[in-house]
Amino acid sequence: MPQRDLDHDVVVRALEKDGWTITDDPFRLEYGRRNLYVDLGAENLLAAEKAQRRIAVEIKGFAGTSDMRDLEVALGQYILYRDVLAELEPDRTLHLAIPVFAYEEVFSDKLGQLVIRQQQLRLIVYEDEEQEIVRWLP
User: Fold this and answer.
1) Using an 8 Å Cβ cutoff, are 36 and 91 in contact?
2) Are 92 and 67 in contact (CB under 8 A)?
């Protein structure tokens, strides 16, 4: 089993406040002989559409000593999980959950915007003190 990110419980509570039901903690992907673990699986009923929205969420707190190293690790995991999800569960979208400061310091600058655009990143920006989601991108 993978080690949980320090903000794991914060993101769980933020998603629940936002109307999501956590279905998997962690969300296991089996591909060939490999097991991968995305931090969370969640569902949300869209009443107007009478449809279930399903997501997988990888949490990155950007608590390391280097923002660029944290970005490299997060991006590598995101691409790997996104590709496997596309094959196994194409109706589930992958999101990268990051704290507000990481969005402001890493993803708002020119390099961060390039990565978001080129990799078509889906971000969940959360505020850890209030345990709330402040932004979904796109």
Assistant:
1) no
2) no
CB 41 within 8 A of CB 24: yes
Integer Cα distance of 85 and 93 in angstroms: 8
How many Å apart are CA 59 and CA 81, to the nearest integer? 12
Distance of CA 87 to the CA centre of its chain: 18
Spans of all domains in the chain: 17-52+67-137
Nearest C-alpha neighbor of 53 from the set 19, 77, 85:
19
Place of tokens 């991108």: 137
Average pLDDT over residues 8-16: 97
Residue with tokens 């089993």: 1
Residue for token digits 């990268």? 96
CA 3 to CA 9: how far, in whole Å? 13
Instruction: Say whether pTM exceeds 0.85.
Output: yes
Please check whether the domain covering 17-52+67-137 is classified as CATH 3.40.1350.10: yes
Average pLDDT over residues 57-86: 97
- Determine if residue 128 is left, alpha or beta; phi over 0 gives left, psi from -120 to 50 gives alpha, anything else beta: alpha
